[in-house]
Amino acid sequence: MKQLILVRHGESEWNKLNLFTGWTDVDLTEAGRHEAFEAGKLLKTEGFRPQLCFTSYLKRAVRTLNQILEAMDMDYLPVEKSWRLNEKSYGAIQGLNKADTAKKYGDEQVLLWRRSFDVQPPALDLHDERSPRMDPRYAELSDAEIPLTESLKDTIARLLPYYNGAILPSFQSHDTVMVVAHGNSLRGIVKELRQMSNDEIIKFNIPTAVPYIFQFSDDMKLEKHYFLGDQEEIRKKMERVANQAKKK
Q1: What is the 3-state secondary structure of 204-246?
Q2: What is the 3-state secondary structure (H, E, C) of the chain?
Q3: Active site residues
Q4: In what order do the strands lie in the sheet with 176-181?
Q5: In angstroms, rounded to a whole number, what is the distance separating the alpha carbons of residues 185 and 98?
Q6: What's this model's pTM, rounded to 2 decimal places?
Q7: pLDDT digits (tens, 9 = 90+) for 63-77
Q8: Are the beta carbons of 11 and 39 closer than 8 angstroms?
Q9: How far apart, in Å, are the Cα atoms of 108 and each of 94, 104, 226?
């Protein structure tokens, strides 16, 4: 049996403030660190033993992974990082409050920017201080690769080459692999694994710091998938994700 563990990062400082985050590099809150550590404890209690980990370049994902591994007493595990696992770029609305933006532009427009499959938010200028071009960790990327805004479709398009070229091949030598990333980059993996339609994936909410387990046969045919933990609490967390951008 092969197992893939997906975990969305714990609550970030901008999650708490209800701001569009995207590629902005914000830290976890104390609650986010706690829920990440609890996720690690749960994985350890349930007997999961990952052998390789993948994460993004953004500290909220990296530090979530660190908390999980500390709780599992598996800090020694190899970790591979890629910008392709970063969150969707929200372009020029990064840093804006979700509810305030909904008041200004309407729930329907913000919902399109936030959760449609192929509608992009307004783009950043390449040399805007918020642009990845201004961040040294993305110096390897060409201007054409720098996302100045993205739809979910765009996010999945830049994610899949890494998923197919690095994550999937890792199962040739490992039985259990863990990916700690972001709501929209993980949606891309889930869509691929579950063969979900565009409409299905935009309605699918991934709660913070809840392990999502995929089990495969030895020839990598999907057999089972489930969220690990108290199912009622997980349902409530998914609802909170869905309601973040509604005007109040």
Answers
A1: CCCCECCCEEEEECCCCCEEEEEECCCHHHHHHHHHHHHCCCC
A2: CEEEEEEECCCEHHHHHCECCCCCCCCECHHHHHHHHHHHHHHHHCCCCCCEEEECCCHHHHHHHHHHHHHHCCCCCCEEECHHHCCCCCHHHCCCEHHHHHHHHCHHHHHHHHHCCCCCCCCCCCCCCCCHHHCHHHCCCCCCCCCCCCCHHHHHHHHHHHHHHHHHHHHHCCCEEEEEECHHHHHHHHHHHHCCCHHHHHCCCCCECCCEEEEECCCCCEEEEEECCCHHHHHHHHHHHHCCCCCC
A3: 9, 87
A4: 79-81, 52-55, 176-181, 2-8, 212-216, 222-227
A5: 19
A6: 0.93
A7: 999 999 999 999 999
A8: no
A9: 18, 11, 31
pLDDT digits (tens, 9 = 90+) for 30-76: 999 999 999 999 999 999 999 999 999 999 999 999 999 999 999 99
Residue 201 structure tokens: 């994936």
Choose among 175, 22, 166, 174: nearest CA to 80.
Answer: 166
Structure tokens at 1: 């049996």
- Rounded alpha-carbon distances, angstroms, from residue 153 to 38, 122, 142, 203: 32, 15, 20, 14
Residues for the chain: how many in total? 248
172: which residues sit within 8 A by CB, 6+ positions away?
A: none
Tokens 């390789």 found at: 52
Residue found by looking up tokens 């307004």 in the block: 122
